[in-house]
Amino acid sequence: MTQFVTTTEMLTLEDYTMNDFEIPQEVLIERAAIAVQEVIGAGSFNLSHILVLVGLGNNGADGIALGRLLHQQGLSVALQFVGNLNRAKASVHKQLEIAKHCGLHPSEKSDFKEATLIVDAIFGTGLNNPLPEGLQKMMKAANHIDNDVIAIDTPTGINPNTGEVMGAALKAHTTVALGYPKIGLRKNQGRKYCGDLVVKDIGVLTPDTFAFSL
Ligand SMILES: NC(=O)C1=CN([C@@H]2O[C@H](COP(=O)(O)OP(=O)(O)OC[C@H]3O[C@@H](n4cnc5c(N)ncnc54)[C@H](O)[C@@H]3O)[C@@H](O)[C@H]2O)[C@@H](O)CC1
Ligand SMILES: [K+]
């Protein structure tokens, strides 16, 4: 049976992996990106033009790393930031520098309709408030466009613990849960918004004695 977790449990396990085992955060981000790349490769998505929507936290960092891998595969990729890059976490800046070295630069605002596949790397387990109004409008508009969306870890706008829509959410065709799926993906609207749920190992370690609450 699939083991679901709360965001607190996921954070505990990520901290355990990075602190007790000294596995660098960049390794987890790279593995997250490879995991999503594999899901994209195994699916029957139209890969003519991929738009990666990038947030300011580690979910965004996963998205940039994925965009870089897809770009290196020779695919057409646009990286579009959602939010002010000046407020982004260090992991985002780091991944952006790597992407630029590989020839992938952030795009100006692109037309969602031009993308044949959208990658949702805006928010993951860090979402703890309703989406800002502008983003709510963007998500609602995107839901009306007929292109596939792959969500990294959680669909943006879905509360990862309760499955509630935080103002608006981006409906995914497939959600690639990293490590363990978050419990919100099977509660309330979470189930509908996550589409097909694929769980991927990214090397997050779990102590034998860990007591899951679910
Ligand atoms: N902890 C780690 O080092 C790892 C995390 N991973 C990825 O990182 C994600 C979690 O990353 P973060 O904790 O950085 O969080 P997110 O990237 O989900 O969100 C970024 C930040 O946005 C802010 N925020 C939350 N709700 C908001 C709102 N409504 N409006 C505006 N800002 C808001 C919060 O301060 C949050 O930290 C996971 O879902 C997963 O994709 C993986 O890359 C593996 C490694
Ligand atoms: K996401």
UniProtKB/TrEMBL annotation:
<feature type="binding site">
    <location>
        <begin position="124"/>
        <end position="130"/>
    </location>
    <ligand>
        <name>(6S)-NADPHX</name>
    </ligand>
</feature>
<dbReference type="GO" id="GO:0003729">
    <property type="term" value="F:mRNA binding"/>
</dbReference>
<dbReference type="GO" id="GO:0016301">
    <property type="term" value="F:kinase activity"/>
</dbReference>
<feature type="binding site">
    <location>
        <position position="120"/>
    </location>
    <ligand>
        <name>K(+)</name>
    </ligand>
</feature>
<protein>
    <recommendedName>
        <fullName>NAD(P)H-hydrate epimerase</fullName>
        <ecNumber>5.1.99.6</ecNumber>
    </recommendedName>
</protein>
<feature type="domain" description="YjeF N-terminal">
    <location>
        <begin position="10"/>
        <end position="210"/>
    </location>
</feature>
<dbReference type="GO" id="GO:0031087">
    <property type="term" value="P:deadenylation-independent decapping of nuclear-transcribed mRNA"/>
</dbReference>
<feature type="binding site">
    <location>
        <position position="156"/>
    </location>
    <ligand>
        <name>K(+)</name>
    </ligand>
</feature>
<dbReference type="GO" id="GO:0000166">
    <property type="term" value="F:nucleotide binding"/>
</dbReference>
<keyword id="KW-0808">Transferase</keyword>
<keyword id="KW-0630">Potassium</keyword>
<keyword id="KW-0547">Nucleotide-binding</keyword>
<comment type="similarity">
    <text>Belongs to the NnrE/AIBP family.</text>
</comment>
<dbReference type="Pfam" id="PF03853">
    <property type="entry name" value="YjeF_N"/>
</dbReference>
<keyword id="KW-0418">Kinase</keyword>
<dbReference type="GO" id="GO:0033962">
    <property type="term" value="P:P-body assembly"/>
</dbReference>
<dbReference type="GO" id="GO:0046872">
    <property type="term" value="F:metal ion binding"/>
</dbReference>
<keyword id="KW-0521">NADP</keyword>
<feature type="binding site">
    <location>
        <position position="59"/>
    </location>
    <ligand>
        <name>K(+)</name>
    </ligand>
</feature>
<keyword id="KW-0413">Isomerase</keyword>
<dbReference type="GO" id="GO:0000932">
    <property type="term" value="C:P-body"/>
</dbReference>
<dbReference type="InterPro" id="IPR004443">
    <property type="entry name" value="YjeF_N_dom"/>
</dbReference>
<dbReference type="GO" id="GO:0052856">
    <property type="term" value="F:NAD(P)HX epimerase activity"/>
</dbReference>
<keyword id="KW-0520">NAD</keyword>
<dbReference type="InterPro" id="IPR036652">
    <property type="entry name" value="YjeF_N_dom_sf"/>
</dbReference>
<keyword id="KW-0479">Metal-binding</keyword>
<feature type="binding site">
    <location>
        <position position="153"/>
    </location>
    <ligand>
        <name>(6S)-NADPHX</name>
    </ligand>
</feature>
<comment type="function">
    <text>Catalyzes the epimerization of the S- and R-forms of NAD(P)HX, a damaged form of NAD(P)H that is a result of enzymatic or heat-dependent hydration. This is a prerequisite for the S-specific NAD(P)H-hydrate dehydratase to allow the repair of both epimers of NAD(P)HX.</text>
</comment>
<feature type="binding site">
    <location>
        <begin position="58"/>
        <end position="62"/>
    </location>
    <ligand>
        <name>(6S)-NADPHX</name>
    </ligand>
</feature>
